[in-house]
Specification:
The chain is an alpha+beta fold. The protein contains 2 helices and 8 strands; from the N terminus they run E-E-H-E-E-H-E-E-E-E.
């Protein structure tokens, strides 16, 4: 299995953003293998996918729920990949729904509204720094 991923730092924690397609049935194994790479000191793995709804990118993690850190890192990855030069608002999809995010690649600042649009939600803010990209074969 060939896996491409990029590191992202937020809140002192390293997250691995898998950018290559990994079948859903293989994601748990892939995440376990990536987390076992001690040199990366990663705390979590997120998989970036094409969105199913009206969003810029979809992010999933092993299990049902995507954490706020993964959502924010996916948003920053998208903003940098698109070459955005100032703060922009766009949508990021997770299994929990579609979330409005604001990302500024020049400062690393990113925020997202977490929760249902029609019910109470909270806004989370972090600074995200994207690190090197890697290609590995397992």
């Amino acid at each position: 299995m060939q896996i491409s991923f990029q590191t992202a730092e937020t809140g002192g924690r390293t997250l691995l953003l898998v950018t290559s397609p990994v079948p859903a049935a293989d994601r748990e194994t892939a995440a376990r293998r990536l987390l076992s790479l001690r040199e990366l000191s990663a705390g979590a793995v997120a998989f970036l996918l094409p969105p199913a709804q009206d969003a810029a990118v979809r992010v999933e993690q092993v299990g049902d729920e995507v954490g706020a850190e993964a959502l924010l890192c996916a948003a920053m990855w998208f903003a940098v990949r698109r070459g955005l030069r100032k703060e922009r608002r766009f949508l990021v999809e997770t299994p929990q729904g579609v979330h409005t995010v604001h990302a500024n690649p020049l400062t690393g600042a990113v925020s997202a509204q977490i929760g249902e649009r029609r019910t109470a939600h909270s806004t989370v803010r972090q600074t995200v720094a994207l690190g090197p990209a890697y290609d590995l074969s397992f």
